[in-house]
Amino acid sequence: MGIVYHTNYIRWFEIGRTELLREMGMVYSEWEKKGFNLPLTQVYCHYLYSARYDEILLIETEVEYVKRASVKFKYAIWDETHEKELTEGYTVHACTNALGKIIRLPWDMINIIEAGRTKE
What we know:
Elements: H1 8-23, H2 28-33, E1 40-47, E2 57-66, E3 70-79, E4 85-94, H3 107-118
Antiparallel strand pairs: 1-4, 2-3, 3-4
């Protein structure tokens, strides 16, 4: 059919989130090495229009909120010309330790995310 499979959008959310955090100065793999993880607890994806194979897409990602033990990211996926929004959604992530126990986000992580939000 030439239409992108629906779960690929969730993968693109992850790419957008990873790159946003990297731009903020927070490399996710480094936080994992310190024992902090951000597993997905919620995902929402509203499909507005279909993306086509080999189409260039734009992924916009922003932090909607940071709480004591969670963070919510908001996404929009656009066509290459930024004229048509194809998909919108969000993910919520809990902060856990290496054993999977929910813990508070470390203050330095919160500060990095909050500082990145104020640049927008």
